[in-house]
Amino acid sequence: MLRNQIDKIRLLFHKERESYFCFYRILGFFPRNLKIYQQALLHKSTSLRSEEGRPINNERLEFLGDAILDAIVGDIVFKHFEGKREGFLTNTRSKIVQRETLNKLAVEIGLDKLVKYASRSSSHNSYMYGNAFEAFIGAIYLDQGYDRCKQFMEKKIFKQYIDLDKMSRKEMNFKSKLIEWSQKHKVEVSFELIEQFIDRENNPMFQTEVQIEGLPAGTGTGYSKKESQQNAAQMALKKLKSDETFKSEIERLKTEHQATLENTNKPLTTDEKPVTENIETEASSVIVEIKVSAPELPIEEKQETTDKVPCSSETSSYPKQTPI
Questions:
Q1: Which residue range(s) make up the domain with 242?
Q2: Distances (CA, A) of 214 to 200, 235, 250, 284
Q3: In this structure, are 120 and 222 located in the same domain?
Q4: 134 annotated to bind ligand
Q5: What's in the GO CC field (predicted)?
Q6: Which of 148, 187, 255, 311 could form a disulfide with 144, with the two C-beta atoms 3.0–4.6 Å apart?
Protein backbone atom coordinates (compact mmCIF):
# COMPACT_ATOMS: atom_id res chain seq x y z
CA MET A 1 0.00 0.00 0.00
CA LEU A 2 2.80 2.40 0.98
CA ARG A 3 4.67 1.45 -2.19
CA ASN A 4 1.65 2.42 -4.29
CA GLN A 5 1.40 5.81 -2.58
CA ILE A 6 5.06 6.53 -3.23
CA ASP A 7 4.73 5.47 -6.87
CA LYS A 8 1.62 7.63 -7.21
CA ILE A 9 3.43 10.77 -6.02
CA ARG A 10 6.46 10.02 -8.19
CA LEU A 11 4.38 9.41 -11.30
CA LEU A 12 2.41 12.67 -10.99
CA PHE A 13 5.28 14.38 -12.78
CA HIS A 14 6.08 11.61 -15.27
CA LYS A 15 5.54 12.37 -18.96
CA GLU A 16 3.63 9.10 -19.41
CA ARG A 17 1.62 9.41 -16.22
CA GLU A 18 -1.66 8.81 -18.09
CA SER A 19 -0.49 5.38 -19.21
CA TYR A 20 0.71 4.49 -15.70
CA PHE A 21 -2.62 5.46 -14.15
CA CYS A 22 -4.50 3.63 -16.91
CA PHE A 23 -2.72 0.37 -16.06
CA TYR A 24 -3.11 1.09 -12.33
CA ARG A 25 -6.90 1.06 -12.72
CA ILE A 26 -6.69 -2.41 -14.25
CA LEU A 27 -3.95 -3.92 -12.11
CA GLY A 28 -4.52 -2.33 -8.72
CA PHE A 29 -0.81 -1.42 -8.57
CA PHE A 30 1.58 0.72 -10.58
CA PRO A 31 3.82 -0.92 -13.21
CA ARG A 32 7.58 -0.69 -12.78
CA ASN A 33 8.38 -1.32 -16.45
CA LEU A 34 5.67 0.39 -18.48
CA LYS A 35 7.05 -0.71 -21.86
CA ILE A 36 6.53 -4.38 -21.21
CA TYR A 37 2.80 -3.82 -20.53
CA GLN A 38 2.50 -1.72 -23.68
CA GLN A 39 4.16 -4.48 -25.69
CA ALA A 40 1.70 -7.01 -24.23
CA LEU A 41 -1.07 -5.12 -26.01
CA LEU A 42 0.62 -4.96 -29.43
CA HIS A 43 -0.94 -7.37 -31.90
CA LYS A 44 1.39 -8.83 -34.55
CA SER A 45 -0.60 -7.10 -37.30
CA THR A 46 0.98 -3.76 -36.30
CA SER A 47 4.26 -4.93 -37.94
CA LEU A 48 6.43 -2.79 -35.65
CA ARG A 49 10.15 -3.56 -35.54
CA SER A 50 13.03 -2.68 -33.26
CA GLU A 51 16.22 -0.94 -34.37
CA GLU A 52 17.74 -4.40 -34.88
CA GLY A 53 14.88 -5.35 -37.19
CA ARG A 54 13.14 -7.73 -34.78
CA PRO A 55 9.31 -7.70 -34.68
CA ILE A 56 7.77 -5.97 -31.66
CA ASN A 57 4.49 -7.64 -30.64
CA ASN A 58 2.94 -9.66 -27.84
CA GLU A 59 3.51 -13.19 -29.17
CA ARG A 60 6.43 -14.06 -26.88
CA LEU A 61 4.67 -12.59 -23.87
CA GLU A 62 1.57 -14.58 -24.82
CA PHE A 63 3.63 -17.79 -24.76
CA LEU A 64 4.97 -16.96 -21.30
CA GLY A 65 1.60 -15.83 -19.96
CA ASP A 66 -0.07 -19.04 -21.15
CA ALA A 67 2.28 -21.14 -19.00
CA ILE A 68 1.99 -18.84 -15.96
CA LEU A 69 -1.80 -18.73 -16.26
CA ASP A 70 -2.04 -22.53 -16.38
CA ALA A 71 0.03 -22.78 -13.19
CA ILE A 72 -1.91 -20.10 -11.28
CA VAL A 73 -5.37 -21.32 -12.30
CA GLY A 74 -4.33 -24.90 -11.58
CA ASP A 75 -3.18 -23.84 -8.10
CA ILE A 76 -6.44 -21.99 -7.38
CA VAL A 77 -8.67 -24.80 -8.71
CA PHE A 78 -6.70 -27.46 -6.80
CA LYS A 79 -7.17 -25.67 -3.47
CA HIS A 80 -10.82 -24.77 -4.09
CA PHE A 81 -12.00 -28.29 -5.02
CA GLU A 82 -10.59 -30.62 -2.36
CA GLY A 83 -10.86 -34.31 -3.09
CA LYS A 84 -11.86 -33.90 -6.74
CA ARG A 85 -10.30 -36.15 -9.37
CA GLU A 86 -7.64 -35.06 -11.82
CA GLY A 87 -10.03 -35.14 -14.78
CA PHE A 88 -12.46 -32.78 -13.04
CA LEU A 89 -9.66 -30.37 -12.10
CA THR A 90 -8.22 -30.43 -15.62
CA ASN A 91 -11.60 -29.75 -17.24
CA THR A 92 -12.38 -26.91 -14.84
CA ARG A 93 -9.03 -25.26 -15.48
CA SER A 94 -9.55 -25.65 -19.23
CA LYS A 95 -12.89 -23.87 -19.05
CA ILE A 96 -11.19 -20.90 -17.40
CA VAL A 97 -8.13 -20.60 -19.66
CA GLN A 98 -9.97 -21.25 -22.94
CA ARG A 99 -9.96 -18.41 -25.46
CA GLU A 100 -13.66 -17.58 -25.11
CA THR A 101 -13.32 -17.02 -21.35
CA LEU A 102 -10.10 -15.01 -21.66
CA ASN A 103 -11.64 -12.88 -24.42
CA LYS A 104 -14.56 -12.07 -22.14
CA LEU A 105 -12.27 -11.27 -19.20
CA ALA A 106 -10.14 -8.95 -21.36
CA VAL A 107 -13.25 -6.98 -22.30
CA GLU A 108 -14.53 -6.86 -18.72
CA ILE A 109 -11.31 -5.38 -17.30
CA GLY A 110 -10.95 -2.94 -20.22
CA LEU A 111 -7.96 -4.44 -22.07
CA ASP A 112 -9.87 -4.47 -25.36
CA LYS A 113 -9.74 -0.67 -25.50
CA LEU A 114 -5.95 -0.70 -25.16
CA VAL A 115 -5.03 -3.40 -27.70
CA LYS A 116 -3.30 -1.97 -30.77
CA TYR A 117 -3.73 -3.72 -34.12
CA ALA A 118 -3.79 -2.89 -37.83
CA SER A 119 -7.13 -1.69 -39.14
CA ARG A 120 -7.23 -4.54 -41.66
CA SER A 121 -7.17 -7.08 -38.82
CA SER A 122 -10.66 -7.97 -37.61
CA SER A 123 -10.95 -8.50 -33.89
CA HIS A 124 -14.42 -10.03 -34.31
CA ASN A 125 -13.14 -13.19 -36.00
CA SER A 126 -10.22 -14.00 -33.73
CA TYR A 127 -9.16 -14.34 -30.12
CA MET A 128 -7.08 -11.19 -30.17
CA TYR A 129 -8.21 -9.98 -26.76
CA GLY A 130 -7.78 -13.38 -25.13
CA ASN A 131 -4.24 -13.56 -26.48
CA ALA A 132 -3.59 -10.06 -25.15
CA PHE A 133 -4.85 -11.15 -21.73
CA GLU A 134 -2.29 -13.99 -21.67
CA ALA A 135 0.45 -11.58 -22.77
CA PHE A 136 -0.65 -9.20 -20.01
CA ILE A 137 -0.18 -11.98 -17.44
CA GLY A 138 3.29 -12.58 -18.89
CA ALA A 139 4.07 -8.87 -18.48
CA ILE A 140 2.96 -8.90 -14.82
CA TYR A 141 5.17 -11.94 -14.19
CA LEU A 142 8.25 -10.31 -15.71
CA ASP A 143 7.57 -6.97 -14.02
CA GLN A 144 6.40 -8.08 -10.56
CA GLY A 145 6.89 -11.84 -10.20
CA TYR A 146 4.71 -14.91 -9.72
CA ASP A 147 3.15 -13.90 -6.38
CA ARG A 148 1.90 -10.60 -7.81
CA CYS A 149 0.44 -12.48 -10.78
CA LYS A 150 -1.43 -14.84 -8.48
CA GLN A 151 -2.65 -11.94 -6.34
CA PHE A 152 -3.98 -10.19 -9.45
CA MET A 153 -5.84 -13.32 -10.58
CA GLU A 154 -7.31 -14.04 -7.14
CA LYS A 155 -8.37 -10.53 -6.13
CA LYS A 156 -9.08 -8.90 -9.47
CA ILE A 157 -10.25 -11.74 -11.71
CA PHE A 158 -11.69 -14.60 -9.65
CA LYS A 159 -13.21 -12.45 -6.95
CA GLN A 160 -14.99 -10.15 -9.40
CA TYR A 161 -15.59 -12.09 -12.61
CA ILE A 162 -15.37 -15.88 -12.12
CA ASP A 163 -17.64 -18.13 -10.08
CA LEU A 164 -15.58 -21.31 -9.73
CA ASP A 165 -18.46 -23.55 -8.69
CA LYS A 166 -20.62 -22.35 -11.57
CA MET A 167 -17.71 -22.61 -14.00
CA SER A 168 -17.04 -26.22 -13.00
CA ARG A 169 -20.61 -27.18 -13.94
CA LYS A 170 -20.41 -25.52 -17.34
CA GLU A 171 -20.48 -27.94 -20.25
CA MET A 172 -17.47 -27.76 -22.53
CA ASN A 173 -17.64 -29.73 -25.77
CA PHE A 174 -14.08 -29.94 -27.07
CA LYS A 175 -15.04 -32.61 -29.62
CA SER A 176 -17.63 -30.37 -31.27
CA LYS A 177 -15.16 -27.52 -31.23
CA LEU A 178 -12.51 -29.64 -32.99
CA ILE A 179 -15.00 -30.91 -35.57
CA GLU A 180 -16.13 -27.34 -36.22
CA TRP A 181 -12.48 -26.36 -36.75
CA SER A 182 -11.93 -29.30 -39.13
CA GLN A 183 -14.98 -28.38 -41.22
CA LYS A 184 -13.83 -24.79 -41.43
CA HIS A 185 -10.33 -25.79 -42.62
CA LYS A 186 -11.61 -28.76 -44.69
CA VAL A 187 -9.47 -31.44 -43.03
CA GLU A 188 -10.39 -34.96 -41.91
CA VAL A 189 -10.69 -35.73 -38.17
CA SER A 190 -11.21 -39.21 -36.72
CA PHE A 191 -11.49 -40.67 -33.20
CA GLU A 192 -10.21 -44.18 -32.49
CA LEU A 193 -10.56 -46.20 -29.28
CA ILE A 194 -7.07 -47.60 -28.73
CA GLU A 195 -7.34 -49.17 -25.26
CA GLN A 196 -9.83 -50.19 -22.58
CA PHE A 197 -8.60 -51.06 -19.10
CA ILE A 198 -9.50 -51.14 -15.38
CA ASP A 199 -8.27 -48.59 -12.83
CA ARG A 200 -7.19 -49.37 -9.25
CA GLU A 201 -10.79 -49.32 -8.05
CA ASN A 202 -11.91 -51.71 -10.83
CA ASN A 203 -13.65 -48.96 -12.78
CA PRO A 204 -13.58 -49.34 -16.59
CA MET A 205 -11.51 -46.71 -18.39
CA PHE A 206 -11.11 -45.83 -22.04
CA GLN A 207 -8.28 -44.30 -24.04
CA THR A 208 -8.99 -42.59 -27.35
CA GLU A 209 -6.68 -41.16 -29.99
CA VAL A 210 -7.73 -38.36 -32.33
CA GLN A 211 -6.13 -38.07 -35.75
CA ILE A 212 -6.13 -35.12 -38.12
CA GLU A 213 -5.48 -36.05 -41.75
CA GLY A 214 -4.20 -39.38 -40.40
CA LEU A 215 -1.69 -37.63 -38.13
CA PRO A 216 -1.89 -38.41 -34.36
CA ALA A 217 -3.02 -35.19 -32.66
CA GLY A 218 -3.73 -36.23 -29.08
CA THR A 219 -4.86 -38.97 -26.71
CA GLY A 220 -7.40 -38.81 -23.92
CA THR A 221 -8.45 -41.07 -21.05
CA GLY A 222 -11.82 -41.14 -19.30
CA TYR A 223 -14.38 -43.23 -17.48
CA SER A 224 -16.50 -43.30 -20.64
CA LYS A 225 -15.77 -43.25 -24.36
CA LYS A 226 -17.30 -39.79 -24.56
CA GLU A 227 -15.06 -38.42 -21.82
CA SER A 228 -11.95 -39.94 -23.41
CA GLN A 229 -12.89 -38.37 -26.76
CA GLN A 230 -13.41 -34.98 -25.13
CA ASN A 231 -10.00 -35.14 -23.45
CA ALA A 232 -8.33 -36.25 -26.70
CA ALA A 233 -10.00 -33.40 -28.59
CA GLN A 234 -8.89 -30.95 -25.91
CA MET A 235 -5.27 -32.07 -26.32
CA ALA A 236 -5.56 -31.76 -30.11
CA LEU A 237 -6.91 -28.21 -29.84
CA LYS A 238 -4.07 -27.24 -27.54
CA LYS A 239 -1.55 -28.74 -29.97
CA LEU A 240 -3.10 -26.86 -32.87
CA LYS A 241 -2.76 -23.66 -30.90
CA SER A 242 0.87 -24.06 -29.85
CA ASP A 243 2.60 -26.25 -32.47
CA GLU A 244 3.14 -24.47 -35.80
CA THR A 245 5.15 -27.41 -37.19
CA PHE A 246 2.19 -29.72 -36.54
CA LYS A 247 -0.18 -27.35 -38.33
CA SER A 248 2.18 -27.12 -41.32
CA GLU A 249 2.33 -30.92 -41.55
CA ILE A 250 -1.48 -31.07 -41.56
CA GLU A 251 -1.61 -28.58 -44.43
CA ARG A 252 0.95 -30.64 -46.37
CA LEU A 253 -1.03 -33.87 -45.91
CA LYS A 254 -4.27 -32.08 -46.79
CA THR A 255 -2.75 -30.85 -50.07
CA GLU A 256 -1.47 -34.35 -50.92
CA HIS A 257 -4.84 -35.97 -50.23
CA GLN A 258 -6.67 -33.41 -52.34
CA ALA A 259 -4.24 -33.92 -55.24
CA THR A 260 -4.71 -37.69 -55.05
CA LEU A 261 -8.48 -37.31 -55.03
CA GLU A 262 -8.42 -34.98 -58.03
CA ASN A 263 -6.27 -37.43 -60.03
CA THR A 264 -8.61 -40.30 -59.14
CA ASN A 265 -11.72 -38.44 -60.31
CA LYS A 266 -10.07 -36.92 -63.40
CA PRO A 267 -11.84 -38.03 -66.67
CA LEU A 268 -9.78 -39.98 -69.19
CA THR A 269 -8.46 -38.15 -72.25
CA THR A 270 -8.70 -39.60 -75.79
CA ASP A 271 -5.15 -40.95 -75.58
CA GLU A 272 -5.86 -42.62 -72.22
CA LYS A 273 -8.99 -44.53 -73.34
CA PRO A 274 -8.75 -48.36 -73.41
CA VAL A 275 -7.12 -49.89 -76.53
CA THR A 276 -10.12 -52.16 -77.15
CA GLU A 277 -12.31 -49.14 -77.68
CA ASN A 278 -10.00 -47.82 -80.41
CA ILE A 279 -9.91 -51.23 -82.08
CA GLU A 280 -13.67 -51.50 -82.14
CA THR A 281 -13.96 -48.02 -83.62
CA GLU A 282 -11.41 -48.77 -86.31
CA ALA A 283 -13.11 -52.06 -87.16
CA SER A 284 -16.44 -50.33 -87.47
CA SER A 285 -15.00 -47.76 -89.82
CA VAL A 286 -13.49 -50.49 -92.02
CA ILE A 287 -16.82 -52.27 -92.27
CA VAL A 288 -18.55 -49.06 -93.23
CA GLU A 289 -15.90 -48.36 -95.83
CA ILE A 290 -16.32 -51.82 -97.42
CA LYS A 291 -20.07 -51.39 -97.61
CA VAL A 292 -19.78 -48.01 -99.22
CA SER A 293 -17.18 -49.06 -101.75
CA ALA A 294 -18.85 -52.37 -102.73
CA PRO A 295 -20.15 -52.30 -106.35
CA GLU A 296 -23.79 -52.68 -107.13
CA LEU A 297 -24.55 -56.24 -108.34
CA PRO A 298 -27.72 -58.05 -109.36
CA ILE A 299 -29.45 -59.89 -106.57
CA GLU A 300 -28.39 -63.33 -107.83
CA GLU A 301 -24.77 -62.25 -108.26
CA LYS A 302 -24.75 -60.75 -104.78
CA GLN A 303 -25.94 -64.04 -103.29
CA GLU A 304 -23.29 -66.02 -105.17
CA THR A 305 -20.56 -63.66 -104.19
CA THR A 306 -21.60 -63.83 -100.59
CA ASP A 307 -21.58 -67.63 -100.58
CA LYS A 308 -18.06 -67.72 -101.95
CA VAL A 309 -16.60 -65.59 -99.16
CA PRO A 310 -15.73 -67.96 -96.30
CA CYS A 311 -16.61 -66.87 -92.80
CA SER A 312 -13.47 -68.47 -91.49
CA SER A 313 -10.81 -71.03 -92.36
CA GLU A 314 -13.04 -73.78 -90.96
CA THR A 315 -15.89 -73.04 -93.41
CA SER A 316 -13.74 -72.77 -96.51
CA SER A 317 -14.27 -76.47 -97.44
CA TYR A 318 -18.07 -76.33 -97.43
CA PRO A 319 -19.62 -77.31 -100.83
CA LYS A 320 -20.99 -74.63 -103.03
CA GLN A 321 -24.71 -74.14 -102.82
CA THR A 322 -26.81 -73.82 -106.01
CA PRO A 323 -29.13 -70.83 -106.05
CA ILE A 324 -32.82 -71.62 -106.06
A1: 174-265
A2: 33, 16, 9, 50
A3: no
A4: yes
A5: cytoplasm
A6: 148
What does the buried/exposed string (b/e) look like for 123-132 if buried means 16 or more CB atoms within 10 Å of the residue's CB?
eeeebbbbbb
CB 95 within 8 A of CB 101: yes
Catalytic positions, written as ranges: 66, 134
Cα–Cα–Cα angle for 40, 45, 48, nearest 5°? 70
Q: Is 0.70 topped by the overall pTM? A: no
- Confidence (pLDDT) at 280: 44
DSSP states of 75-118 as a string?
HHHHHHSTT--HHHHHHHHHHHHSHHHHHHHHHHHTGGGT-B--
> Would you say 244 is a known binding-site residue?
no
Q: How many domains does the chain have?
A: 2
Q: Could you tell me if 120 and 154 lie in one domain?
A: yes
How far apart CA 88 and CA 168 sit, in angstroms, is 8
Tens of pLDDT, residues 252-300: 998 988 888 877 766 655 555 554 444 444 444 434 343 444 444 444 4
